Amino acid sequence: MKDRIIRLSWEGTALFAATAILATVDERARPVAIAIALGLFALGIAIFVAAYATAVSRSRTDAIGIGGLFFLAGDVAPDTVRRNLLAALAAQTGVALVTAAARPFTSLAFGVLVPVYGLALTGLWAARRGRFEPRSTR
User: Taking a C-beta distance cutoff of 8 angstroms, is the pair 128, 52 a contact?
Assistant: First the structure.
């Protein structure tokens, strides 16, 4: 995979899944799982801000909608990009919900913050390379 944003999304997903699943079966792994979950969440917030700033800059000339920006709705991205980024986001969400449900009232609940990372990377990809209609000049 050549696209760095897609690669980062899958690498973060794999790291999160591995640590969260391990922490589900071995309580000693929970501090590492918390660190990874909170780290990906913090990174996601920073990426989200960068994606938003880039989109705001582009919005002067392009009609950027939230659905297109963060969910690649419409013809914003090629199918392979859309499938990869949304699949990584779905995997993060699934792992977060399943592991938190498997061990309720534990530190695994921090995993539900991780999908911010996937959503932010999707937004960053769209803000940088997404195809949006030109803004109408009335």
Answer: no
